[in-house]
Specification:
This protein folds into two domains: about 80 residues, Helicase, Ruva Protein, domain 3, CATH 1.10.8; about 60 residues. The protein is built from six helices and no strands. Helix 2 packs across helix 3 and helix 2 packs parallel to helix 4. The termini are far apart.
Length: about 150
Amino acid sequence: MLAWLFISPISPAGAGALLQDLENALMCKCDDKCGKVLINCTCSTSDKTRGTFTKMLESGLTVEQIIKMQVDKYGETVLSAPTKFGFNLTAWVMPFVALVAGGFGVRKVLSSWVRKKDDSDSAESPNEEPEISEKYSKRLKDELDGIEL
């Protein structure tokens, strides 16, 4: 009795949900190369593809098997999202790395602006005036001493 449940074909509601999963996982391969995910594409090629996928699901193939068949036929470009291993892992990791690096870059720029502002404020402080005054006072004294001779 249980064997009959496993052999029975997929219900139409279950097939619809599986078809949506399949359409979300694959890109449309139409002639005009629209670049849309299959679930969002409305071209005639996508309608034919949906029909083919429905027949495959009704014949007993799983979503994973159909996706593997499409990847074997078209390559990994048919996938709507890159795989999470190998070189494709960079597509998942790089946005976060760029975000962190950008945050550090913005922090460095802001801190350098604040440091320049602090340096310009300290240059105008009275602490440096006596040093300048002493320099000119000494020069003035030397010149005045030279005149009196």
